[in-house]
Structures are given as C-alpha cells and as structure tokens.
Specification:
Layout: H1 5-16, E1 19-24, H2 28-32, H3 35-42, E2 46-48, H4 51-59, H5 65-73, H6 78-103, E3 110-114, H7 123-137, E4 142-147, H8 153-161, E5 166-171, H9 174-193, E6 203-208, H10 210-226, H11 230-237, H12 243-258, H13 262-268, E7 276-280, H14 293-297, E8 303-307, H15 309-318, H16 332-341, H17 346-379
Parallel strand pairs: 1-2, 1-8, 2-3, 3-4, 4-5, 5-6, 6-7, 7-8
Helix pairs in contact: 1-15, 4-17, 5-17, 6-17, 7-8, 8-9, 9-12, 10-11, 10-17, 12-16
C-alpha cells in the first residue's frame, strides 16, 4: 500500500476525532512482507482476527507450508498446529504494535485473538482457554476475544478482574451491551477489592454493524412486496438502511451514560479507562449503499473502528473524517421503535445474528482445522 501525504492523513484525521482504526485482518505474509509496518505508518493502531480470517490465511496459499512441514514431522495434530501458528502470528504482530501501545500509554496497539468459537456456550472451557492464550502470548498488548453469549458474560468479568484484556465480540443487542458493560465494570471493582492495578486493564465491546441492516432490510423487503398500500410501502422503504446505525448510536448513548456515573468515576480515579465501543463489520454489504456509509456515520470520540483491507483502502482514498456519531442520538431509539411498529422483531433479529455469527465462526474454525489436517497428512 503506497504512502503519500493525502492518503496517510485520512487515518490520522480519524485519530484527531478520537477514533482509533484497527485492521480486521491478519496473515503471515502481512507481517513478513513489511505491509503491516506500512499500515502502522499509515495510522493503523491495532489488529483484530477471527476464525474466518485465519481459515482463509491458513487454508489458502503457501505462507505456512514451511512451518506445516516442520510441525507435521513433530506429529502435532491440527488443533495444536493451529495454536502454534496463530499464537506466533499474533505475537509477532503485537511486537510490531508495541511501539503504538507504549506511545499511547496502553490505549491502542492491541492485537486480538479469539477463544475457539466451539466453546462459546461453555463458560469454564472458554475461561480456561482464554487464560491459556493470555499466558502463552505473554504480552501486555494482547486482547482475548470472548463472545457476548450468556455463557461468555461471566468470563468477561473474571478475566477483567484478573487483569486480562478482553475484546467482547458477537455483540448486537442493546440489552446485551448493558450486560457486557456491567461485567466489565464489576470486573474492575473486583480487581480493586483484590488489590490489583487498573491502569493497564483494557477492553473493547465490539458492536457488529452492517449485518443488522442485511437481516432487517431483507425482512422489510418482504413486507414491501406483501403490501398493496403505496404509503405503507414508502414508510417501510424509509426504514431500510437505518437499523444498524440507529442501533450503534443508541448503544453509544448508553455508553456515555454508563461511564459518566459516580460508580465509574471512582474507578477512573484509580486509573480505569472506559470499555471503548468498537465498530465491527463496517464494510458495506449492500451495493446500493455508499461504500463508507457505516464508517463515516460512526466517527466519534472514545471509539474504535476495525476495518477490513478494502474498507481501509477506500477510506484512505476518499474518506471524510467528520464527527457524526453524536448526531441524532435522540432519534436512534425512535428508529428502532418504528421498526418494531412495522412488525420487525428487533430483539429476535439481534439474537439470531449472534447465534448465527457464533455458529458461522465455529464452522470456519472446524473447516480450517480440516484443511490443516489435510495438509499435514499430505506432508507426512
């Protein structure tokens, strides 16, 4: 990715608005080719990964063949090989971002690695693997990704109380966000009770964005087709493409409320930082929408946007860094209410998105292990 003053400044312009840009991708070649260093120079200050990203990285191409040959000779099975390779990549990326971590006093510079999504509904197994990954990586600028499932909520509280950085993932619904924030704040309070320090405990709550519009707009399409009332059709069309941004803004309003309380002020005085909102899935899925619709609508302070490669490229080419997140916060709940009045079961959609997301990541994880095993068998 070439660097010039015009493109580089766009990501730094987002930083000037109080928003950090993380890169939603990782692969061995990104690290070894110098591309990651170029991205850091361009203003990327963190990295997120997930099983689908690792599936594509490890199942395709030849980046990992030398390591696979070595590990095949050692007799490791696919899960052990995946852990070895992913921990190496995450650790190397974290080392490259350590300078950002130090420069920002621990605000940014994080690399996220996800607990196996197969464990998403098992509290104890998730907690055990999260601790294992944290200790294996042994770096302060790692975040362990834990899903916001009912079984994941207590894991978040426990890890925070132990000083483990957490990226809460698969988060859609506002009520679920409240549970996550409560787990984070309670975890900080427990850490204080245990005599622990708060000044290096970090967490983000990853709110998934575009998937919400994809699901809700499909239901609105069905209702438009089923209606013979032109006024009703127009009313339904006016709601399309609105749910995801409204949900994010409503969540941001709650974020502001929660972290302005006396309860959190007491923790802030001891060095705690708010659990920042991270916008995930901000690439535009509907080709009828502008490619930076979600990115530009959700620019605001104390937030993170993790962008896939194409979205980073698009923003560096023609993005505009103007504060927009605080606009229309009062109207956001009204949009969600209007969707309910139109017959959309918004809580039901959010729950299905979380369930489907966890299942999709679990499938990607299993597919990746199968591909690794196939390569191992061939190499042996």
């Amino acid at each position: 990715m070439a660097t010039n003053t015009a493109t580089t400044s766009r990501l730094y312009d987002l930083q000037a608005q109080g928003q950090s840009v993380w890169y939603d991708n990782i692969r061995r070649g990104l690290i070894t080719s110098g591309e990651l260093q170029q991205l850091i120079d361009d203003g990327i200050v963190g990295i997120t990964s997930n099983p689908t990203i690792f599936e594509k990285a490890m199942a395709d191409g030849t980046d990992y063949d030398d390591d696979l040959k070595r590990l095949a000779k050692e007799g490791q099975d696919a899960p052990a090989v995946f852990e070895t390779l992913s921990v190496a990549d995450i650790g190397n990326a974290a080392d490259m971002l350590r300078g950002v971590y130090d420069k920002t006093d621990g605000l940014d510079g994080y690399v996220s690695i996800e607990v196996s999504p197969v464990l998403a509904h098992d509290t104890e197994a998730t907690l055990t693997e999260a601790r294992h990954l944290w200790n294996s990586l042994g770096r302060p600028n790692i975040m362990i990704k834990v899903p916001a499932t009912p079984e994941g909520i207590p894991v978040i509280e426990t890890l925070i109380s132990e000083g483990v950085n957490v990226n809460v993932t698969m988060l859609f619904a506002l009520d679920n966000y409240r549970e996550v924030a409560e787990a984070y704040i309670s975890g900080l309070e427990k850490r204080v009770e245990q005599g622990g320090s708060l000044d290096r405990v970090a967490s983000v709550a990853s709110i998934f964005v575009s998937r919400i519009d994809t699901a809700i707009d499909a239901q609105l399409d069905e209702k438009i087709k089923a209606s013979n009332d032109a006024a009703e059709q127009e009313k339904l069309r006016a709601l399309q493409g609105k749910a995801a941004i409204a949900n994010a803004k409503a969540t941001y309003a709650v974020y502001q409320e929660l972290y302005a309380t006396e309860r959190f002020a007491a923790l802030r005085a001891k060095g705690a930082r708010p659990q920042r909102l991270l916008w995930a899935s901000t690439s535009t899925k509907n080709p009828a929408f502008p490619d930076l619709l979600y990115v530009e609508a959700l620019i605001g302070p104390e937030t993170v946007d993790t962008m896939p490669p194409a979205t980073v490229t698009a923003f560096m080419d023609h993005g505009t860094a103007k504060p927009a997140l605080a606009d229309g916060l009062d109207a956001a709940p009204k949009t969600i209410e209007a969707l309910g009045e139109a017959g959309i079961d918004v809580p039901g959609v959010m729950q299905k998105l979380q369930d489907d997301g966890v299942a999709s990541f679990a499938k990607s994880f299993e597919t990746m292990l199968g591909a690794i095993q196939k390569k191992l068998d061939a190499l042996r």
